[in-house]
Amino acid sequence: MKVMAFDLDGTLARSKKPMHKPMADALSQLTRLLPVAIISGGTIDLVRSQVTDMLSDEADRSHMHLMPTSGARYYRWNPEDDDWQEAYEHNLSEEDRRLVIESLERHARELGIWQARTWGPRIEDRGSQITFSALGQQAPVEAKEEWDPTNEKKNRLAEAVQKDVPHLAVRSGGSTSVDISNRGVDKAYAVRKLADMLGVTVGQIAFVGDRMDPDGNDYPAALAGTIAIRVTGPEDTLQLCNRIIDWYNRNSR
């Protein structure tokens, strides 16, 4: 293992919530030991608010690689601007975005999962990705986690939308979400790009995620050949990170 890559929601933090301090401290320590990537279905703003804004002063941001919207965008730290700088983006066409938004609403209504009450927009156009959030982007974590614990509702919606847009990639995302992006631009694409940029093999990247099931959006990273590590939540991830930090500390003396 020469690189560690992490999913965000359900792995480093609960849905749309900032990392807790112990997780932020552990991730900060990891950045001083090896390159660290965040590969999330969320936007760069969410990656900032949930992850990078929470890092301690110990963090080495130059060792971090931010790949939001499932790798459709990529950001590196620019010390001159003291900010994250976009290196590439793969946006959906206007026509594809229109088709996806119409399909999501139509099928969600047909399947009975177009909720009357939501916390914020159900459908978000992220440019490089369209995301459907059944309860709205700002729904309470508890409500999200209770809505579809078996992922059956999301998977049915993803299957229905995929038939309308076969040229795009439709994936079951976080606890209440379905993500749509250009085909071939997913977490498998992200880890391959990351390997090329860092001069390592995909098999030298450890990818940590909570949705490694075949319908989950972390599954492509596992299929790509990473060292796939499935976790059950942020507490599990924290234990993993602490074990890795302890190993480095013992073996670097």
Structure description:
Homodimer. Mg(2+) binds at residues 7, 9, 210, 226. It is found in: Cytoplasm. The active site is at residues 7, 9. It comes from Bifidobacterium animalis subsp. lactis (strain AD011). With 253 residues, the chain is α/β, with parallel strands linked by helices. It has two domains: 3-90 and 185-251, Rossmann fold (3-Layer(aba) Sandwich), CATH 3.40.50.1000; 94-182, Eukaryotic phosphomannomutase, cap domain (Hypothetical Protein, Haloacid Dehalogenase-like Hydrolase, Chain: A, domain 2, 2-Layer Sandwich). The protein is 37% helix and 21% strand. It is built from nine helices and eleven strands. It has helices spanning 21-30, 44-50, 68-71, 94-110, 141-147, 152-164, 187-198, 219-223, 234-251; strands at residues 3-6, 36-39, 64-67, 73-78, 83-89, 123-125, 130-133, 168-172, 177-182, 205-209, 227-230. The protein has a five-stranded parallel beta sheet. Strands 6-7-9-8 form a four-stranded antiparallel beta sheet, with helices on one face. Strand 4 (73-78) and strand 5 form a beta hairpin. It is globular. The two termini are 19 Å apart. The model has no long low-confidence stretch (mean pLDDT 94).
